[in-house]
Amino acid sequence: MISKNILAIVAVSAAAFSGVASADAEYGAPYVIKFEGNRTRAEVMAEAARVPSTRSIEPAGSRVAAPLQSNVQTQVVRAQAAEALRLGKIPSGEIGM
């Protein structure tokens, strides 16, 4: 009695899964992209060969800007920064303005 029930369940599930498999094969899976190209393999290979000549291997933003020329002495700038810090014009530590 139990084996008949198990056999019936297996038969029903096999029939259900076989229908799903044929529907998937007939209509295609939803995640499959259908693509039809109109270029030849030689055209694609020629384009791929041109890519290295048009691209830079240098990452964007990796160049360092040239130093700015200034006529102010380093000692004067340091003295002004120390004075501003002493007067409280420059925040120090985690306390902001």
TrEMBL record:
Record has Signal as a keyword: yes
What organism does this protein naturally occur in?
A: Ramlibacter terrae
> Keywords on this record?
Signal
Question: What is the name listed in the Swiss-Prot or TrEMBL entry for this protein?
Answer: DUF4148 domain-containing protein
* Signal peptide positions (record): 1-23
